[in-house]
Amino acid sequence: MRAFASYLILLLALPLAALAVVLPANVYRAQGIAAPDCDGPLQVLIFAVPAVLIYGAGALLAYRAGRRFDRRVSLLCLVIALAAVPNIAEAVHELYRNAADGECRG
Fold first, then answer.
1. 77-93 per-position pLDDT tens digit
2. pLDDT digits (tens, 9 = 90+) for 23-51
C-alpha cells in the first residue's frame, strides 16, 4: 500500500513537472519581444522547485527500494527532475537580470 501511495503521488505530480519544464521564464523574450517579465520567473519557480523536490525524493526512495522496476522508476524520476533544473537556472538568471537592470520594482 505504501508503494502504491508513492507511485500515486508521482503520477499526480506529473502535470506540475510538465509545467515546470514547459513554462518560459520570460514570456516576452520567448515571443521575440525584448521586454522584462516581472512575474514570469516566479511563476516558473512555483512549479519547478516542488517538482524537483518531489521527483528527486522519488528517485532516491525508489532507488533505495532496490527492485528492478523501482530502479526504472528511479531513473525516470531523475530524468524528470533534471529536466526542470535548466528552467530553474533560467528563472533565477532572469530574476537577477531584472534586479540588475533596475526593472520590476514594486
1. 999 999 999 999 999 99
2. 998 888 888 888 888 887 888 999 999 99
Output the CA–CA distances (angstroms, integers) from residue 79 to 13, 21, 30, 58, 59, in the order listed: 14, 11, 24, 11, 9
Q: Which amino acid appears at position 39 of this protein?
A: D
Residue type, 85: V
Q: Which long-range contacts (CB under 8 A, 24 or more apart) does 69-75 make?
A: 73/7, 73/10
d(CA 17, CA 45): 11
Q: How far apart are CA 14 and CA 7, in angstroms?
A: 11
